[in-house]
TrEMBL record:
Keyword Transmembrane: yes
Primary localization: membrane
UniProt KW keywords: Membrane, Transmembrane, Transmembrane helix
Species in which this protein is naturally found: Gossypium darwinii (Darwin's cotton)
TM ranges: 62-81, 134-156, 163-183, 189-207
Highest rank taxon of the organism: Eukaryota
Membrane topology: Multi-pass membrane protein
GO CC terms, sorted: Golgi membrane
Molecular function terms from GO: pyrimidine nucleotide-sugar transmembrane transporter activity
InterPro entries: Nuc_sug_transpt
Annotated compartments: Membrane
Name the record gives this protein: CMP-sialic acid transporter 1
UniProt lineage: Eukaryota, Viridiplantae, Streptophyta, Embryophyta, Tracheophyta
Length: 237
């Protein structure tokens, strides 16, 4: 649970920059909610000194941190570019998915051909053993990944990347609950605090500003009740 790579601050910062590129503005309150989301997801992955050596918390090589930042930035760039492609025309969602995943299918088949060529076709061509070892569990994983891809593409087309990021962050809560019942997982204090902070961020981002700061609702005046005052100070209804 502590090693779940949910969201990283570089991902969010680059994503917000690209949203500006897409001419989408965020309010100051939404910016604060995004920063709070990054803090919450980071806290949920931190181990206490009682669980691991304090010296080992930040003992990873600097190259690992740099590669992690690069991976986060590339993920943000890919997500925003995918959103741009999904929204630039009115094509069917399923047709757009076919276009996007065709490139991946071609590259995967090319990799299989190269592997067969290097192995000298000892095990036969790849299409004869493509589904070897598949079980019901394997097909369920494939179905789950396919359904997830369709849901993500739906979010990209009709919502945006920020909604997807918040949906992913809320998976922490569901994962924690399922892990407690299925794997006897013991949640940590850091995980609880991270989930609470993420839920606060979710409320801050999507709730109306008047609900958060207690602004009085705007009352529209009735045109029939207006009083017109003339120059001679006589009121006409």
């Amino acid at each position: 649970m502590a090693n779940i790579n949910m969201i990283t601050p570089p991902f969010l910062s680059l994503q917000r920059f690209l949203r500006l590129f897409l001419k989408k503005k965020l309010s100051n309150l939404q910016w604060m909610a995004i920063i709070l989301l990054a803090v919450g997801t980071t806290m949920s992955q931190v181990k206490g000194c009682g669980e691991a050596s304090c010296d080992s918390l930040f003992s990873a090589p600097i190259q690992g941190y740099m590669l992690g930042i690069l991976s986060a930035c590339l993920s943000a760039l890919a997500g925003m570019y995918t959103e741009f492609l999904m929204k630039q025309n009115n094509d069917s969602l399923y047709w757009q998915n076919v276009q996007l995943y065709t490139f991946g299918a071609i590259l995967n088949m090319a990799q299989l051909v190269v592997d067969d060529f290097r192995a000298g076709y000892e095990k036969g061509p790849w299409w004869q053993r493509l589904f070897n070892g598949y079980s019901i569990t394997t097909w369920m994983v494939v179905l789950n990944l396919g359904s997830t891809g369709l849901l993500v593409s739906w979010l990209m087309k009709y919502a945006d990347n920020i909604v997807k990021v918040y949906s992913t962050s809320m998976v922490m809560l569901l994962t924690m609950v399922l892990s407690v019942f299925l794997f006897s997982f013991k949640p940590t204090l850091q995980l609880f605090l991270g989930i609470i902070i993420c839920m606060m961020s979710l409320h801050m981002y999507f709730a109306p500003p008047s609900m958060l700061v207690g602004l009085p609702p705007t009352v529209r005046s009735d045109p029939d009740s207006l009083v017109i005052v003339s120059d001679d100070h006589k009121a006409e209804s």
